[in-house]
Amino acid sequence: MGTVPLLDDDVLAPGARAVFGDIRATRGTDYINNFWRALAYDPATLEAVWSRLKHDMAPGSLDPLTKELVYIAVSTANGCSYCIHSHTAAAKAKGMTPEMHAEFVAVIGMAMQTNGLVQALGVEVDAEFRA
Amino acid sequence: MGTVPLLDDDVLAPGARAVFGDIRATRGTDYINNFWRALAYDPATLEAVWSRLKHDMAPGSLDPLTKELVYIAVSTANGCSYCIHSHTAAAKAKGMTPEMHAEFVAVIGMAMQTNGLVQALGVEVDAEFRA
Amino acid sequence: MGTVPLLDDDVLAPGARAVFGDIRATRGTDYINNFWRALAYDPATLEAVWSRLKHDMAPGSLDPLTKELVYIAVSTANGCSYCIHSHTAAAKAKGMTPEMHAEFVAVIGMAMQTNGLVQALGVEVDAEFRA
Amino acid sequence: MGTVPLLDDDVLAPGARAVFGDIRATRGTDYINNFWRALAYDPATLEAVWSRLKHDMAPGSLDPLTKELVYIAVSTANGCSYCIHSHTAAAKAKGMTPEMHAEFVAVIGMAMQTNGLVQALGVEVDAEFRA
Amino acid sequence: MGTVPLLDDDVLAPGARAVFGDIRATRGTDYINNFWRALAYDPATLEAVWSRLKHDMAPGSLDPLTKELVYIAVSTANGCSYCIHSHTAAAKAKGMTPEMHAEFVAVIGMAMQTNGLVQALGVEVDAEFRA
Amino acid sequence: MGTVPLLDDDVLAPGARAVFGDIRATRGTDYINNFWRALAYDPATLEAVWSRLKHDMAPGSLDPLTKELVYIAVSTANGCSYCIHSHTAAAKAKGMTPEMHAEFVAVIGMAMQTNGLVQALGVEVDAEFRA
């Protein structure tokens, strides 16, 4: 599928070529996954997304694996199969064990379930929960 | 709002009363939030959801705060305002600092953005990402 | 809230007035709920939606209560609070008992949960399930 | 695709083996669909989900076919293709005729449409609809 | 995949045949895409959807290309891959250039991102924004 | 509601103060809406989101009003009430007439409806639609 072509290295605009170089240097691999090859048709957005992603997913007060789990959780609720697959692979590369994966998926299921129950019951936010 | 009434303690069925007791004992507070008071109209589901939630959110190979973040991430993508508020309060109670909250929210925004880009571009899953 | 005003009877365009008349006659009540008063700013769409809704929700090979449950289920997954409230009221008016409501809500929760598990695990459709 | 492998019978943990046995006995077929083979990597969640699903989808004040329709409706709004396919097959097995399927799908479409209209117009819940 | 068969021209009911004729005449092509062939199992809904779609997507105070972009934007947030692909093809046929496509996709990503930020932060609607 | 406080001008960090100044200069108004006051707790993300939003929503090969419509369409499918209200106000300020609003909302409803039909029927993407 795809609504735009996946661009090979030899047809990249200079701005996209620079981003691919930074992806490779940052990740320590020559492999560029399909998302970036699709987004490369728009070098300005490619650069903006990559630079912000690199910043937001880096170690901070939250560790990179936790950030991957948050990312996958959002992607699961949105049904973005590509994002689930690519970031589950990233989470495994960052140390997610099968036990952690199992617990993580169970929490997603629990959140989905209670989201549905809350919405169907029309529960109002407790005053105690407001900042 | 609400499609069912929020039940006060004095009208609970025995099964619901027992669950409320366990919620109070587990959390060390007398406060029962609206979700449980709404779900109390169905004691069997109340018991099943509470017992599974208690199990899934407990410390394991993932710590409880990480599980809260995953929970909020799913709830945000689903637009469940109640769930976002109640579990953000829980995350703060479990040690989420303002810095962690800020990083967490930024990752949610990044995941939402790339979910949209991936879907609009129709990107196919790389063979490398399949288990 | 609202991005358009809710129109009172005395400012309706003729096409909207006719639809309001049919809603009242069909439902046997003078009450017009907010959705129709909001949509009345566009009489053509009001007429198209009402006439189709009246057709699709009428008794057929599925009974009207079952159709209301399907409607609420979709609205819950979409997080449309207005739709959940209005159609839960309709379902009660069409005979949904508290027991049925409780079972219904539990099924919604189960579907939400397994939707999340399936997406997170990236499960492929069995060949057996394709028409 | 898939973020976990689909487990064959000969590699199941004892807990998963027991659940597979109960699925086969309950359904009267030897066939185990992919969802359970994926979830089998986590026997505790497999057991919890299966036992609750068996309970919630069983005949009660709502009949099993109505419950399947509710399930599919949620799955459709969530875009869970696997769930739509597996439960549509289940609904057909439980007596859903082509006429019922057509009416059901039309109601889903109507709910989706009005969900969108309501959200875009920002319609507030009528006081009449609150429990 | 598919939960209903895609109907060939020679098995269409008369009502569906008429709609296919109008699709061909309106679009000036003999090609009927899969959506209509799937929906043809329900001629009444096929007719209702096609006639309304033809009306709503026609030139009006908004031009047809703008309407296609709105359509794709909704479909992207809903994760409807079929709809994204079919209407992106339609948008290209109606004059969407690669530059327009890139800007459009960037706006989708921005909207997704801020939707997530707003929901996670629980921001209340400013009084200034209410109609 | 809210999971973070809305910051007043006199408690802003320098980075947030600078962004507020640019929002005011760009929009030609002193008013800062709630979203930015909530996001101000994280000056780095505030700056990144505002600068990218200003870029992506500016005139380009698509005009600013079209971009607002795309934005609202995404927000509607995601059920982000805040975003719908704030960008509908922006669209009106950029020239959206009541007639355009009506047509726009009708297209959203049509897209939502066909998204649901397509997902429920499990329609596969035509080879003709792939880039």
Notes on the structure:
Six copies of one chain form a homohexamer. Chain A is mainly α and 131 residues long. Chain A folds into two domains: 1-56, AhpD-like (Up-down Bundle), CATH 1.20.1290; 60-131, AhpD-like. In chain A, 66% of the residues lie in helices and 0% in strands. Chain A has six helices and no strands. Chain A has helices at residues 14-27, 34-39, 43-56, 64-78, 81-93, 98-121. The termini of chain A are far apart. At the B-E interface, helix 4, helix 5 and helix 6 of B face helix 4, helix 5 and helix 6 of E.
Note the main attributes of this structure.
homohexamer; AhpD-like; 6 helices; 66% helix
Largest sheet of chain A: none
Tally of DSSP β-strands of chain A: 0
Measure the end-to-end span of chain A: 44 Å
Q: Report the structural category of chain A.
A: mainly alpha
Tell me what the CATH architecture of the largest domain in chain A is: Up-down Bundle
- Fraction of helical residues of chain A: 55-70%
CATH top level label of the largest domain in chain A: Mainly Alpha
Q: What's the Cα radius of gyration of chain A?
A: 18 Å
Low-confidence stretches of chain A: none
Mean pLDDT of chain A: 97
Largest protein interface, residues of each chain: C-D, 68 and 68 residues
> What's the overall geometry of chain A?
elongated
Order of helices and strands of chain A: HHHHHH
Measured by DSSP, the beta-strand proportion of chain A falls in: under 5%
Query: Based on the structure, what is the oligomeric state of the protein chains?
Result: homohexamer
